[in-house]
Amino acid sequence: MTENMLFEEYKKLIDKYLKNNALQVKDLHGKLYPLFVGMAEKAAVSYAINHVKGNQTHAANLLGVNRNTARTKIKEFGLMQQPVRGMYENKSI
Question: pTM of the entire structure?
């Protein structure tokens, strides 16, 4: 898929979103850009953190952002992975 094809698909998704939610562009006055940029950003961060199996430093490198920026976005989007219970953790019986 080329960047132009991705661009065209993204435009279709915006159209589909508006139709599925019975919205018109005028309903999103001043909100269209932050809404869709935010969705694209969340999708990219989600993809990155899943692709690197939760390693935030590697996700930051994949995204091309500072590690702290990646951590902030991961937290902001609710993508923090649940800690895995360690074998030395105190377990209730």
Answer: 0.75
Give yes or no: residues 49 and 22 share one domain.
no
Q: Which domain holds residue 69?
A: 31-79
* Tokens coding 20: 């599925």
Amino acid (1-letter code) at residue 22: A
Alpha-carbon gap, residue 9 to 63, rounded angstroms: 21
- pLDDT by residue for the chain (93 residues), tens only, comes to 899 999 999 999 988 988 898 888 788 888 888 989 999 999 999 999 999 999 999 999 999 999 999 999 999 999 986 544 444 445 554
Please tell me whether residues 25 and 35 are part of one structural domain. no
For residue 90, being part of any structural domain is answered with: no
